[in-house]
Amino acid sequence: MYNPTRDQARQFFIEAWRKHREHLPLTELEVIAADLVKHHPEYHALIENPESAMAREWTPEMGETNPFLHLSLHLAIEEQLSIDQPHGLRAAFEAHFSRLGDRHEALHIVLDALAETVWRSQRDGAPLDGLAYVERVRRGKP
């Protein structure tokens, strides 16, 4: 399993976006990453300034979302949806997508549920609870 460092993860998104903007060939994963960045224009200025992006820290006390964490959660969700793991995630997502008519908005429901699931796992020192995660997505609440 690939476990990138903080800097490697940041560099991946920075490079995927740079290659996208310069119309350079992208891997399949870079295509997904660049599309995620495209859907988050609020992150463009940061990602287009690699020195600042690599050096910046985001802490809970700052009250700001870490854009690289946000994009990484999106990337994880895209993979989870592609293989329907945990089982039922894709159907729960598709129900929200159908209801909302906006894929990105539906993805944010999944993202909130994933963030809550990861937080609970870390807090409790327990494995991720896939069933609870899918149920959170179904309910549309973390």
Could you characterize what this model shows?
This protein has 2 domains: 1-61, no CATH class; 84-142, no CATH class. The two termini are 27 Å apart. Helices cover 69% and strands 0% of the residues. The protein is mainly α. It has helices spanning 6-21, 28-38, 44-47, 50-55, 67-83, 89-100, 103-124, 130-139. The mean pLDDT is 92.
Strands, helices and their partners?
Elements (H helix, E strand, L loop, with lengths): L5 H16 L6 H11 L5 H4 L2 H6 L11 H17 L5 H12 L2 H22 L5 H10 L3
Give a nutshell description of this structure.
The protein has eight helices and no strands.
* Fraction of residues in helix: 55-70%
Number of separate domains: 2
Uncertain ranges: none
- From the spread of the alpha carbons, the general shape counts as globular
β-strand number: 0
Task: Spell out the helices and strands N to C.
Answer: HHHHHHHH
Radius of gyration: 16 Å
